[in-house]
Amino acid sequence: MATLTLNQVVKSFGDTHVIKGVDLEVKDQEFVVFVGPSGCGKSTLLRMIAGLESTSDGDIVIDGQRVNDLGPAERGLAMVFQSYALYPHMTVEDNMGFSLKLAEVSQQERRQKVLDAAKILQLEPLLERKPKALSGGQRQRVAIGRAIVRNPSIFLFDEPLSNLDAALRVQMRIELARLHEELKATMIYVTHDQIEAMTMADKIVVLQGGVVEQVGSPMELYHHPRNRFVAGFIGSPKMNFLKVEAVAGDAQGVEVRVPGGDTVKVPVEGDEVAQGQALELGIRPEHLMLDDQGPLKASVSVIERLGGQTSLYVEMDGDLLTLMVDGDVTHRVGDEIRFGFEPGRAHLFGEQGLALASLERHPLASLTRQDNRAASTAEA
Amino acid sequence: MTTTTTTGDSVKAPVADAGRGASALRAQRRRKFGITLLGWGVALIIFFPIFWMIVTGFKTEAEAIADPSLIFTPTLESYVEVQERADYLKFAWNSVVVSFGSTLLALLIAVPSAYAMAFLPTKRTKGTLLWMLSTKMLPSVGVLVPIYLLFRDFGLLDTRIGLTIVYTLMNLPIVVWMLYTFFKDLPREILEAGRMDGASTFQEVWYLLLPLTLPGIASTGLLSVILSWNEAFWSLNLTTSQAAPLTAYIASFSSPEGLFWAKLSAASTMAIAPILIFGWLTQKQMVRGLTFGAVK
Ligand SMILES: Nc1ncnc2c1ncn2[C@@H]1O[C@H](COP(=O)(O)OP(=O)(O)OP(=O)(O)O)[C@@H](O)[C@H]1O
Ligand SMILES: [Mg+2]
Asked: How many whole angstroms separate alpha carbon A50 and alpha carbon A53?
């Protein structure tokens, strides 16, 4: 059992306010991912939870106990650093067993626990080595092993995979997900890689400028971003935005005029929308479809062929739009294309970039990784 | 067979490359030779006075004041006389106790100070460091009177404890500075990982910081020993006989009866011999420590 609650948590370094009142609820065994652009305060927030950084205001509560004034070790957490932070003068075994040594655990028991953790991570052949003699991926596994040995109530990871090459990153990502299942531990994971966030998280926390922009399951953030920032941050390639004008709005949706003059009715709550109001239409590249009858028209300026898929970049009203289309399209640069989208796939953003709520909730919006697994075992 | 089919271009290219490589190599070798020569020159200039002192120690007094010459019959006469006039071992023991004692004391004070400055800095840390260093710019003689009076009133004159205290204070700024830079080079996360693992501040220092910065600490200690060993101003002013170290021993041979070059040289050679040997034995460590940050 390990839960974490953040209550209006604030962090200031002198006059710099880095974390500006964060509320968060982390459930037992949940895998929570903090994402956000560089400098938004992800690491700072994680370090505050760890106890490495003091809290300027608000409460950090672990398992119902306020821990603001407890030291890092007393909070019973373990952290994996981006730079691994292994002890360079100790062997892998001593690195992993250091916390137990400090806790005055007998040498025999210590060895047993280190061996258990080493087995989970396939580190047994490396136990006698010093960190210098390990590859990046092996060092990362030792750092994770060191965390496992402590048997912490919550694991904290600060961009643990960002120093690894792409292939290893995918492998470690899967390994971490497996570890999460195996250890049944609560994990908080910081990354700026939104693929890691989407694939690993039960719950994603999107941060910007020290403020939580949205908290939700990956599918919820993808299908129901609360504002323009989250919409643009989650999903790759980035969502396209088009300036549009509201023609009419009611409870059934909002009718907008797209560049080119056609109107489209987007199924979002439109009671508040006034005629003539400037809005922004957001459509993901994968939801734009080539369509000779489509409402949008532009000429292709760049083509990127990925094999299975092709990205078409078109210019429209000075904005560059991206279309993810079938890999076998035969278009060339300079071709005029017409394209459109399913109105239900589109998003509308009003004042201050806030999204107008969809009329219908996406069926997968509440899906978690646990659900994925349940479904697959049911099928099998 | 294949070589005959290669085109002219691809044959010529490597040859041209080799030519360029050879001339570059020659230039590099010439530069290396020049630098080596320069290095030897500087080393000889630095070493010459020491060499002359050692040579003079083996001459008779008459030879020593005669025209400089390298042709003479070596004699231990001066050494014997020097030893008759003063007990070398007593002075040497004082030097050992005071320089190692003050170094140990300075390290004991400097490790926590440098830890605090490196890992828990405040707005004033930089200022404090600069202020500490600035005390080294003050000529020692400027504080001679107050220190002398303090020593007199506390009964510290001509005691090894007194001299140890002065040397500790004298070297402390440098020792703190050096440790500070070595500590600062250590990635913070390693200590933070230790703290997550449950290490107390003491355990953090003992199990992580000290072992990881040992080369730096060792070279700092060596430098402090050498500086204390060679210090003359305070030892001459604050000691007379009981606690006098080797620097005072040398000075005692430039006596009112006149200068005796051979005896002075013999005494000086004996005074610097231990630290010279010590420095030579530890030079690898010194260099490694002083370039610790650069080559890590
Ligand atoms: N000790 C400090 N003093 C002053 N400002 C700090 C301090 N530590 C961090 N900051 C500031 O706080 C902000 C958030 O930093 P943080 O390291 O949490 O960002 P991050 O989201 O982890 O970014 P990245 O993705 O680049 O790691 C930054 O603007 C940084 O400059
Ligand atoms: Mg960070």
From this structure: 8
Domain locations in chain B as residue ranges: 2-56, 77-290
Q: What is the Å distance from ligand 2's center to B80 Cα?
A: 71
Percent of chain A exceeding pLDDT 90 equals 72
The 10s digit of each residue's pLDDT in B88-124 is 889 999 999 999 999 999 999 999 999 999 999 999 9
pLDDT tens-digit readout, B245-289: 988 888 887 766 667 788 888 888 988 888 888 888 888 877 776
Contacts of A150 in chain B (CB under 8 A): 197
How many Cα neighbours within 13 Å face the side chain of A75? Answer: 27
Q: Where are the beta strands (DSSP E) in A77-202?
A: 77-80, 154-158, 186-190
| Dist. CA B61–CA B253, nearest whole Å | 13
Check whether A88 has a pLDDT greater than 90.
Answer: yes
Mutate to test the interface with A, among B120, B196, B206, B292 (most CBs of A within 10 A): B196
Q: Domain locations in chain A?
A: 4-230, 231-353
Q: Which of A311, A283, A278 is nearest to A296 (CA)?
A: A283
Residue range A231-353 forms a domain whose CATH class is mainly beta
Q: Rounded CA gap, B6 and A189, in Å?
A: 58
Q: Are B116 and B246 in contact (CB under 8 A)?
A: no
Residue burial A360-379, b: 16+ Cβ < 10 Å; e: rest: eeeeebebbbeeeeeeeeee
* Cα–Cα distance list, A150 to A49, A87, B192, B196, B260 (Å): 17, 16, 15, 10, 72
Q: Which residues line ligand 1 (CB under 6 A)?
A: A 13, 16, 18, 36, 38-44, 192
Indicate the CATH number for domain A4-230. Answer: 3.40.50.300
For residue A96, list chain B residues with Cβ-Cβ distance below 8 A: none
Which residues of chain A from 78 to 117 reach within 8 Å of chain B, CB to CB? 78-79, 81, 83, 85-89, 98-99, 102-103
Query: Which residue has tokens 């979002």?
Result: A268
**pLDDT for the residue B294:** 42
Residue A46 touches partner B, C-beta closer than 8 Å? no
Residues on chain B touching A102 (C-beta within 8 angstroms): 197-199, 203, 207
Q: Are the CB atoms for A79 and A147 separated by under 8 Å?
A: yes
Q: Which CATH number is correct for B77-290, 1.10.1660.10, 1.10.10.10, 1.10.3720.10, 3.40.190.10? A: 1.10.3720.10
> Taking CB atoms and an 8 Å limit, are B195 and A102 in contact across chains?
no
Shortest Cα distance, chain B CAs vs residue A87, angstroms: 6
